[in-house]
TrEMBL record:
It comes from Xenorhabdus budapestensis. The keyword Oxidoreductase applies. One of its GO terms (molecular function) is oxidoreductase activity. Signal peptide: none annotated. This is Cobalt-precorrin-6A reductase.
Length: 261
């Protein structure tokens, strides 16, 4: 088996699509994901899948041992620490880095019911004044932070249906009436029915783009008259020597087409 020329980081649907592009053009690669759920998301690709989180030093050692010639950061738009670790490891070794940027729909949504915020704290400050039953469609990673700012409210969490995520929800004190374990993305019709089913009064979501079903989360809020709080993406800088930015899958495909075999 040939050693991979390229390393991809990311357990997103975008990362899997990038892997499929590489399978099509015949580029050797390895995909690194943080969790077993990320590995499941990538099932069916040709490249090796490595599971587990890595800090900068471990990442640099891993890349060096594998003889990686290029890295693609296709991690989640909100995985700030991971992206910083990747940049540091690549710059330490002098490895070229492509940062994949998932296209955003945030500028396409303007409405009095939509509240755009920069932090979890701001999201919760807005939410506490808008309703009692607050639905989080932001994942489980920062659930503790939301709960600490939403005391006295009924917090409903839509999370991935994995054992570790459910255990974490229970450890945070959420009851079976507050946990909705489902795998998205979902259609607008599904979300509309879901919001009604769980009797949400406020929805908090992320600027997840098309791959994350962002507009499909927002549109039902507007049609139902529900306030929708959007946690905007962190303003990350992806500039510097050896760093190339790819905006969307089409641009990524063009870069891969020119990758030296």
């Amino acid at each position: 088996m040939k050693r991979p020329l390229m390393q991809i980081f990311g357990g997103t649907s975008d990362a899997r699509q990038i892997c499929v592009m590489m399978d099509t053009v015949g580029i050797d690669y390895c995909l690194s994901v943080a969790t077993p759920a990320g590995a499941q998301q990538a099932m069916g690709i040709h490249g090796e899948i490595v599971t587990g989180r890595m800090e900068t030093e471990a990442m640099a050692e891993y890349l060096q041992q594998r003889g990686i010639k290029m890295v693609i950061d296709a991690s989640h738009p909100y995985a700030e620490q991971l992206s910083q670790n990747i940049v540091s490891a690549c710059q330490k070794l002098g490895i070229p880095l492509i940062r994949y940027i998932r296209p955003s729909d945030i500028d396409a949504v303007e409405h009095p019911l939509i509240y755009k915020v920069a932090t979890i704290e701001q999201a919760c400050e807005v939410a506490v004044n808008l309703g009692t039953r607050i639905l989080l469609t932001t994942g489980s990673k920062q659930l503790v932070d939301y709960l600490s700012h939403l005391k006295g409210k009924t917090v409903l969490a839509r999370v991935l249906p994995t054992a570790d995520v459910l255990a974490m929800c229970e450890s945070c004190g959420l009851s079976v009436d507050q946990i909705f374990a489902l795998k998205g993305p979902f259609s607008a019709d599904f979300n509309r029915s879901f919001y009604q089913f769980c009797q949400a009064e406020v929805v908090i979501t992320k600027e997840s783009g098309d791959q994350g079903g962002f507009l499909e989360k927002v549109e039902p809020c507007l049609s139902l008259g529900l306030p929708c709080i959007v946690l905007c993406r962190p303003k990350q800088q992806f500039e510097g020597e050896g760093i190339t930015q790819a905006n969307g899958l089409e641009e990524m495909g063009q870069l891969l087409a020119n990758f030296p075999m």
